[in-house]
């Protein structure tokens, strides 16, 4: 991992194995349903539900400091706790990294390879629900330097030094499918005009480990996604794009990357913004 711009933001499975009983470490598993967690999870991991813990009812990300304080306090996380994040979907751990960094949490890391690699290596699993004494977490206001809002995204369409990066599936980008079926007539299909498409899963090897710095650099530079540009990744609800923010900023060292967390969920519902469909 030393070849990355900031290798310190990743931990491997052996490091986590060595720290399973460390009281200063809290492991977070994130999924759309609690059932996989109840069946088997990394010992001492706390479960966060994407829909009820991280999103609002309209699928916007819940970036209310009071809400994040309640979530972290309930999970036994203090401002000094070391948080290790993973999930059942590619890039979920990096999404949690972005959320916690947005609220100023310093000690947050991504489990490289996630749950898949942990299981593949035959490491221990637990079925007991993890419970810790509640803490009293104090969140900072969301860091505007990590986010880009819709108005600035729209203004960037005429900028040559700025690049929009659509990290959804090819079918979503082409307007053939939605990540989730929207209410009738509420969401338009397609992508933001001029956006470069590169699916977020292409940053990972088959075992879930991030590709090398050289491979990642080749992947992005081949599509004109270079460090001299300001890059705004987006997806459907801001989670997959947060993982690409992580890759570009921390693994490749791009200096100007901000996540459009409103993403397609917001853009597609605005009546007066342009949309492209191949």
TrEMBL record:
CDD domains: TST_Repeat_1, TST_Repeat_2. Pfam families: Rhodanese. Residues 21-127, 158-276 form the Rhodanese domain. Keywords: Repeat, Transferase. Gene3D superfamilies: Rhodanese-like domain (3.40.250.10). Coiled coil: none annotated. SUPFAM superfamilies: Rhodanese/Cell cycle control phosphatase. PROSITE patterns: RHODANESE_2 (PS00683), RHODANESE_3 (PS50206). It catalyses: thiosulfate + hydrogen cyanide = thiocyanate + sulfite + 2 H(+). One of its GO terms (molecular function) is thiosulfate-cyanide sulfurtransferase activity. The keyword rRNA-binding does not apply. The keyword Transferase applies. PANTHER family: THIOSULFATE SULFURTRANSFERASE (PTHR43855:SF1). This is Sulfurtransferase. It comes from Cyanomargarita calcarea GSE-NOS-MK-12-04C.
